[in-house]
Amino acid sequence: MAEGKDPEKEKRKIKSVKKMKAIMTKYYKKAKLAWLTRKKIAWITSGGPVEPLIAMNIIPVYPENHGAMIGASKMGVDLCQKAEAMGYSSDLCSYARSDISCAPAKGGPIGGLPKPNMLICCNNICGTVLKWYEVQARYFNVPLFILDTPFCHTQFTQEARQYVKKQVEEYILFLEKVCKKKMDHDRMKEVGRLSVEAQRLWQAVLDTAQNRPAPLSAFDAFFHLALIVTLRGTRQAVDYYQELLAEMKQRVADGIGAIPNEKHRLLWDNLPIWYRTRWLSQKFAAADACLVADTYTSAWCGALQYIDENNFLESMAEGYSRIYLNIGIDEMARQVIQMIDKYKADGLVMHSNRSCKPYSFGQLDIQRIVREERGLPSLMIEADMVDERFFSESQIDTRIDAFMEVVRERKSGI
Amino acid sequence: MKQMKELAGITGNPIAYARRLQETSGKKIIGYMCSYAPEEIIHAAGAHPLRLFGSGRNILLADSHLQSYCCSLVRGVLEDALAGNLNYLTGMIFPHTCDTVQRLSDIWRLNVPEGFHLDIVLPVKLDTADACQYLIDVLHRFRDDLGKALQTKISDDDLRKSITLYNNIRNNLQKVYELRKSNPDLLSGRDVYALVKAAMIMDRESYLTILQAVVGEMQKATGTADNKKNRRKRLILSGGICSQPDIYSLVEDVGAHIAGDDLCTGSRYFAGQISVNGDPITAIAERYVKRVVCPAKHMGNRSRAENLLHLVKDCHADGVIFMLLKFCDPHAFDYPYLKKALDKEGLPCLLLEVEDQPQAQEQMKTRIEAFLETLKTL
């Protein structure tokens, strides 16, 4: 039987995928045509505050999302090597390397990102974005705004709160100056509410994976994440996630799982290995294991508790400072354990991602804490999110087999 | 110079020195790893600030906490801590630096039982008024936190005394560099290395005495020294830490010398002065804002290149050697644009990827020799 026509497979396909692809294609087309429509373009980091951009009618573009596309289309090695020829060490983040070389080469899956009018860098995810955006600010010779969110090792201090709040005010002034127009605060309030609504819906979508079988896996979440990253604050994102949530609820009602025979439930940590998501999902599915949740896609709704939807700008400082990657390892471990309990995970799969030091350093301690507190088996995969040269398929294949053996044994022992 | 032997011994084994200092003087020793550690505040609290470098033990224990793509400085220091080598520390402080040190702080807090632990979450950008205010606030908090941890009160007078001492040290180290600029034979490169490194390790009062004596001897020798060798090629070292004392002799052996540096274990450590007037904490913050930045901090998009070019001119240098600590992201990101800035001025440079531990001389020697050859043809 031809692959696409297998009714079993057809049944499990998420219908919203088509819509998401259409939305993202339209979004990139619109961004590419911004020069024609005289709209301004801002490049912004994935953890950055996009809402004021939406309120100012600026098109946000995400170099990290671009990096993910480059990885998924397996163009990473070539672009990374081009960056190395420019003098960038192969030890640097592969998102940064591939994006940096893409600009002069006009390469990559969409022929390079549209040229920015401004750069917005929030360092709540890493220090790498600061250096990366400095590189791009020099290359494009456009203004750079840095939202500096002090790291919350054990606390978010009063002075840090003051500092970030002041910067939010500066951010608005910066945008007003670049756009030569005032911010419409009523519109900003509306965007803030829509952003919170989209984040709640996204959390609700992820929550449906609490069901057995889980209607979606982390691999699906990696894909459907695109809108919550790029277009939160728009009506479009809210509408999309409402539809996706309805589809997931229907799947739950119909007992349709992300994989055919879900026996084991696993939690994924760190960024996806973009060029091997299909291989990995098939590998785990073949072992009847579903990655039911992950620490990565939930990061875009993890700080909801700090945000006041009726006072978005005021509460934004705390919300953006206390996201998953900007907190101490012990707090991260606590959140991982919460997810293990919530999604009833049988094991933990960690991607030790040489591109992402703030995400990866500390994983070994989180692994230990999870073992001590929940006795859960875990697997550490050494790889990179975009640069395939750091992926050893045969080694990882063997390690997944051995890990699944442990998961099965542990469960049969209980 | 006779003082140099003593300094070489101390910088060769800082851990042994600090342990001895703690045992003989009873001083509380506070560890740190970054040139943004406010040493003046630690000193004013009656404690001894000690900059940590890896001692070179094999990495065994740190492997359970940090992957292989973590820099050797951080892995090495964590290894020392986990092995109990640093159990004489009363406390460890972590000024916010890079992604790796940020996580080291967490790992340290969770795994190293001895001593108190303090984070100093400095701003990452230093070029706005709000960031400067936040920097001052953070230093105030550190002063309170440290006072509590050491059960002492740190007065403004104590701070001013410490600032004066440190200004004196910085001023004299600047004199050493200044004197060597016109006459490199006054002090060998290896001795300069030991002299600067000892400033981060030794009891600061004893250190100042030695430093002043060294400067005195250099000044005396200035008139008499043979200036003939001054036509040798002059190089600048640029990077983060430099734990390669051999590089100085290697460069000198091939007929050149290091005329200046942009290293956080070099001139960035002792650049600038702190005002003794007004609020001492604000004054300490002011120095950080005016100082040449570490690439993990933001001060405009081109300030590091401008500084490097200025340094090259000021030292009449013929070329630059970049000492890139493997896996150090902030420095690796800056290298291409710094190189481009040098290229534009026709200044050659050499990139050396280094570890926190002194490495085999042979390969480094070959590369430096080849680099010098290209310089001579220019």
Account of the protein in words:
The complex is a heterodimer of chains A (414) and B (378). Chain A starts with 6 loop residues before the first helix and ends with a helix. Chain A is globular, with a radius of gyration of 21 Å. Chain A has helices at 7-12, 16-32, 34-37, 51-55, 63-72, 76-85, 94-105, 128-140, 158-179, 185-207, 218-224, 226-230, 235-254, 277-286, 312-321, 329-343, 357-360, 363-374, 393-413, and strands at residues 41-44, 59-61, 118-122, 144-147, 264-269, 289-294, 347-353, 378-383. By secondary structure, chain A is an alpha/beta fold. In chain A, strand 1 (41-44), helix 4 and strand 2 (59-61) form a beta-alpha-beta unit. Chain B has 378 residues and is α/β, with parallel strands linked by helices. In chain B, 53% of the residues lie in helices and 12% in strands. Chain B has helices at residues 2-12, 14-25, 39-44, 72-82, 99-111, 129-150, 156-182, 189-198, 204-222, 246-253, 267-270, 280-290, 303-314, 329-344, 361-377, and strands at 29-32, 48-51, 89-95, 116-120, 233-239, 256-262, 319-325, 349-354. In chain B, the strands form two sheets. In chain B, strands 2-1-3-4 form a four-stranded parallel β-sheet, sandwiched between helices. In chain B, helix 5 (99-111) links the parallel strand 3 (89-95) and strand 4 (116-120). The interface between A and B is large, with 49 and 49 residues.
Q: Please report the two chains with the greatest interface, counting residues with C-beta closer than 8 angstroms to the partner's C-beta.
A: A-B, 49 and 49 residues
Strand order of the largest sheet of chain B: 2-1-3-4
Question: Secondary-structure element order of chain B, as H and E?
Answer: HHEHEHEHEHHHHEHEHHHEHEH
Report the C-alpha radius of gyration of chain B, rounded: 20 Å
Tally of contiguous helical segments of chain B: 15
CATH topology of chain A: Rossmann fold
Q: Which structural class fits the helix and strand makeup of chain B?
A: alpha/beta
Number of strands of chain A: 8
In total, the number of strands of chain B is 8
CATH class of chain A: Alpha Beta
Strand order of the largest sheet of chain A: 2-1-3-4
* Share in β-strands of chain A: 5-15%
H-E string of chain A: HHHEHEHHHEHEHHHHHEHEHHEHHEH
The biggest sheet of chain B, with number of strands, parallel, antiparallel or mixed sense and barrel status, is:
4 strands, parallel
Query: Which fold name fills CATH's third level, the topology of the largest domain in chain B?
Result: Rossmann fold
Main structural class of chain A? alpha/beta
Biggest β-sheet description of chain A: 4 strands, parallel
Top CATH class of the largest domain in chain B: Alpha Beta
Shape of chain A: globular
